[in-house]
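QA checklist item 7 of 12: single-chain prediction sanity check.
[x] sequence parsed
[x] length recorded as 141
[x] structure emitted
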Amino acid sequence: MIRFSLICDHEHEFEGWFRSNDDFDTQKKRGFVDCPTCGSHKVEKALMAPAVSTGRSQEKIALAMGEAQKQALAQLKAMAEKVRENADYVGDKFAEEARKIHFGESDPRGIYGEATLEEAKSLVEDGIEFMPVPAFPEDRN
């Protein structure tokens, strides 16, 4: 279920729960979504603030891990750091650059960056080997 913040044409704000974005759209088209304050059927999704992880929740996560999980997490962080130190960052051009390297159009080298799910699937279909590198909250600046 997805919770949407909604607003009517009279600026009454309220929340609604839907199975999906398409479910909201279908119910709205059929006139099933209305403002509980005034009954207006002219309802739109309002801007919502994303859920943000805080340092406090990270502490709770860390406390919930056993020793084996802490060691595995430390190894993942070390591996991600080693990749970043020894590879070129190509940003959102990852799929394009990986193809160039694979097909000999660019010099072979280690790269890392971002790719959409569709781009990753396409790389797999083309037989291009890669692996996801985990991003941790403390990596984001």
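[x] summary fact logged: The radius of gyration is 23 Å.
[ ] second reviewer sign-off
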